[in-house]
Amino acid sequence: MHAYRSHTCAALNKSNVGDTVRLSGWVHRVRDHGGLLFIDLRDHYGMTQVMADPDSPVFAEIEKVRSEWCIRIDGKVLARDESLVNAKIPTGEIEVFIQDIEVLGKSEELPLMVFGDQEYPEETRLKYRYLDLRREKLQKNMKMRSDVVASMRRRMWDGGFREFQTPIITASSPEGARDFLVPSRLHPGKFYALPQAPQQFKQLLMVSGFDKYFQIAPCFRDEDPRADRSPTDFYQLDMEMSFVTQQDVFDTIQPVLTGVFEEFGGGKNVDQDWPQISYRDAALWYGSDKPDLRNPIKMQVVSEHFRGSGFAIFAKLLEQEGTEIRAIPAPTGGSRKFCDRMNAFAQKEGLPGMGYIFWRDGADGMEAAGPLAKNIGPERTEAIREQLGLGVGDAAFFLGGKPKQFESVAGRARNVIGEELGLTDKNRFAFAWIVDFPIYEQDEETGKIDFEHNPFSMPQGGMDALNGNPLDVLGFQYDLACNGYELVSGAIRNHKPEIMFKAFEIAGYDESEVRKRFGGMVNAFQYGAPPHGGCAAGIDRIVMLLAEEQNIREVILFPMNQRAEDLMMNAPSEPMSDQLMELGLRVIPQD
User: Fold this and answer.
1) How far is the C-alpha of 463 from the C-alpha of 170, rounded, in Å?
2) In the chain, how long is the greatest CA-to-CA distance?
3) From CA 237, how far away is CA 539, in angstroms rounded?
4) CA–CA distance from 146 to each of 66, 219, 255, 430, 556 (Å)?
5) Beta partners for 76?
6) Which of 297, 295, 311, 319 is nearest to 354 (CA)?
7) Cα–Cα distance for residue pair 492/515, rounded to 1 Å
8) Neighbours of 109 (CB within 10 A)
9) What is the distance, to the nearest Å, from the Cα of residue 442 to the centroid of all Cα atoms in its chain?
10) Is 508 left (phi over 0), alpha (psi -120 to 50) or beta?
11) Which residues are paired to 366 by β-bridges?
């Protein structure tokens, strides 16, 4: 017999009754039924109930066993009494009578319990992550993560892609976040960087003639943490293709992600129709470039109904250039109680409040209620209702100003309204491509033009577009949104040096600066670069959605805390003085 086990803790069933077996695992819990000891023995695969009575030759040793001890037992498989069968687990029809036991590893008193669903402070969970990972939910999440990655790999290979590994130690390359720098011992005073993404390398692979590339790629960014983003490193399904249009990229990645969500989505509906929504329309309709389309609410511009109206706040606001009023329809939200609740939400978001109108049955039929309705009068109120397609029992909320100043709050309000009124379909994965991102933006104070989004995207219209108004230039850049999260980002790349130099010149970077910062890629593009494009899908975020978790740390094996600290390994830590000397570095104490 094997030194540690003949079977896993999920393998035994009624066909094994009478067999002598050996199992190894962790003591999940111990139950004493008046001299009869039951132990739920757990390993990575499942659980088996093992038991002993005073007739067992090792009963005295079994009495000493405690939770999370790692043990090996030999025993005989017995059939459970029919009334004691546990149909919830594969081994529920049997139990194992213990004839021998070996303690493989004792456990000290536990800082957190593995059995049960008790909540513990995040600090405790991360410090003792190896114990936290023994818990059923995290075991399930990490298995799913591994299976999702394997599924992605299979689907990419089936699509004719090859997997290539790109460097981890490389040059600093601005990708929109801060680099993690690595000092060079052999070149004192110089630094490598951990890649924010394999962006330049995968483009160079296309120049090298590798038509279809993918990689499960680690990426490193020194970012502020969020619930849906790791502050240090993350993994993405990275892909690039040559001789493709934007639609080709969409048609390639859609079946991969559709298949993954169908395979691991727990039976939820997976939308097959992925609409393409312009960045500007997404901001207008949803207040976000990663809209949750499970919520049917679409915001609309209603400025004309307030221009010159009796509601002075909005009327005066509209006299300023670049301002508008938007309405958030709220079907079934037509009660003063709900409207007051949303008004309180706006105040928590830092606004004075949100104007509202709601429609109800009155003595002479439908009537509009709320402060706004009284100020603008029945004619304008009715015009708003007709535009929004609302009726009795419905409401509308209003925000005004320069769109960029209130869009994000409006988007959050739309999400809350959809949730509170039960309009958001929770049994669905709803996808949408966000396209036509503007390449440039203008600083309102200085008037300076700079990149708003990816500077390496091919401008729609090529060089001709760059000779016009920069604020009108759109890029072949795209994101994929699902249920309110950005899952994929990508672009058709700017592969022509002359167009790249012009694009950067508009943002204030001359050719020498571009060559200095992106020399490797610019040089390569001078030797017959093919048109190419691709995208990257965030694996951590995809698994978070599939596992129905709200925090990305629940699907990462060893995550950092909110301050980008590894409490388990005590990182970051102070370097040894001889390490600093070898690297020619000195740490300047911060005040």
Assistant:
1) 31
2) 93
3) 7
4) 31, 18, 19, 24, 11
5) 20, 97
6) 311
7) 21
8) 7
9) 29
10) left
11) 361
Which residues are registered as beta bridge partners of 533?
Answer: 241, 492
Q: What are the tens digits of pLDDT across the range 85-141?
A: 999 999 999 999 999 999 999 999 999 999 988 899 999 999 999 999 999 999 999
Angle subtended by helix axes 403-420 and 336-348, to nearest 10? 140
Structure-block tokens of residue 511:
């050719």
Residue 101's beta-bridge partner residues?
73
Q: Please check whether residue 48 is in contact with residue 9, taking contact to mean a CB–CB distance below 8 angstroms.
A: yes
φ/ψ of 6, rounded to 5, equals -95, -25
Q: 358 pLDDT exceeds 70? A: yes
Residue 190 DSSP code: -
Q: What is the DSSP letter of 75?
A: E
Q: Give pLDDT tens digits for 465-505.
A: 999 999 999 999 999 999 999 999 999 999 999 999 999 99
- Specify the pLDDT at position 291: 97
The residue with tokens 């049955």 is 361
**pTM for the whole structure:** 0.93
Phi-psi region of 352 (alpha: psi -120 to 50; beta: other; left: phi over 0): alpha
Please give the structure tokens belonging to residue 338: 């709900």
Q: DSSP labels for 422-454?
A: T-S-SSEE-EEEEE-EESEEE-TTT--EEESS-
363 band by pLDDT with thresholds 50, 70 and 90: confident
pLDDT band at 364 (very low <50, low <70, confident <90, very high): confident
Q: How distant, in Å, are the alpha carbons of 243, 517, 529 from that of 523?
A: 20, 11, 10
C-alpha span between 442 and 529 (Å, rounded): 31
Query: Which helix (H) or strand (E) element contains residue 213?
Result: strand 212-220
Do 51 and 96 meet the contact criterion of CB atoms below 8 Å apart?
yes
One-letter amino acid at 98 equals I
Phi then psi dihedrals of residue 220, to 5 deg: -130, 120
At 520, list the tokens.
């490797």
d(CA 497, CA 509): 14
Phi and psi torsions of 180, nearest 5° = -90, 120
d(CA 329, CA 565): 43
Measured distance CA(557)–CA(539) in Å, rounded = 13
- Give percent of the chain with pLDDT exceeding 90: 83
Q: Where are the beta strands (DSSP E) in 470-531?
A: 474-475, 477-482, 485-492
Q: Are 210 and 243 in contact (CB under 8 A)?
A: no
R_g over Cα of the chain: 30
The pLDDT value given to residue 174: 58
Q: Which residue has the tokens 């066909």?
A: 15
Helix (H) or strand (E) segment spanning residue 256: helix 246-264
Structure token pair of residue 167:
């460097």
Name residue 355's beta-bridge partners.
398
Nearest 5°: the CA angle 330, 335, 339 is 65
* pLDDT given for residue 350 in this prediction: 85
**Residues facing 362 on adjacent strands:** 365
H or E element at residue 42:
strand 36-42
